[in-house]
Amino acid sequence: MPTLLIVHHSQTGGTRQMAEAAAAGAATEAAVRVRLLHAAQAGPADVLDADGYIFATPENLAAISGLLKDFFDRCYYPALGRIAGRPYAAMICAGSDGSNAARQIERIATGWRLKAVAEALIVCTHAQSTEAILAPKHIAAAELARCNELGAALATGLALGVF
């Protein structure tokens, strides 16, 4: 049974909601095992055991979160040359843009020789003040539906052997 690994970090809840929505969408595909792990819990063995990935992060200072970066730092070399060709997608919970965080994930995935199966899904919260940035996030249902669809699509592709 193929495994979809969803690795996420969330400080204010937005990215966690997105990752949970993707996991729920992926779980509709009974032929795929879905693993939703916080970035601090995920390690090289999880990456090597998975057949596809969703990486979810908030945009922090125009970059991926520190804990997702830590995940990539811990897993990059143990997985290098061993996961080439596997599919991935990225989800970013951004305050204003998210494109630089998406580029960072793309560069890491390129090094791993992963295959992007969708454009980075960026949800913009428009949080600009210190208070808004630090406040708990509530992602709109329409945005969560997009995350759900991404998870479902990746799982279906894994189940059908498309990826």
Offer a quick outline of the entry:
With 163 residues, the chain is α/β, with parallel strands linked by helices. The protein has helices spanning 14-26, 44-49, 66-79, 99-112, 130-134, 141-160, and strands spanning 3-8, 33-38, 52-60, 63-64, 87-94, 115-116, 121-124.
Instruction: Write down how many β-strands occur, each being a DSSP E stretch of 2 or more residues.
Output: 7
What would you report as the Rg, rounded to the nearest angstrom? 15 Å
N-end to C-end Cα span:
14 Å
What pattern of helices and strands is seen along the backbone?
EHEHEEHEHEEHH
Principal-axes shape call = globular
Coarse structural class? alpha/beta
Quaternary structure of the protein:
single chain
As a percent range, the share of helical residues equals 40-55%
Task: Give the biggest beta sheet.
Answer: 7 strands, mixed
User: What's the number of helices?
Assistant: 6
Mean pLDDT: 97
Strand content: 15-25%
Low-confidence stretches: none
Keywords:
alpha/beta, 7 strands, single chain, 44% helix, 163 residues
Task: Describe this protein's structure.
With 163 residues, this protein is of the alpha/beta class. It has 6 helices and 7 strands. Strands 1, 2, 3, 4, 5, 6 and 7 form a 7-stranded mixed β-sheet that branches. The radius of gyration is 15 Å and the shape is globular.
What is this structure's SSE topology?
Layout: E1 3-8, H1 14-26, E2 33-38, H2 44-49, E3 52-60, E4 63-64, H3 66-79, E5 87-94, H4 99-112, E6 115-116, E7 121-124, H5 130-134, H6 141-160
Parallel strand pairs: 1-2, 1-3, 3-5, 5-6, 5-7
Antiparallel strand pairs: 3-4
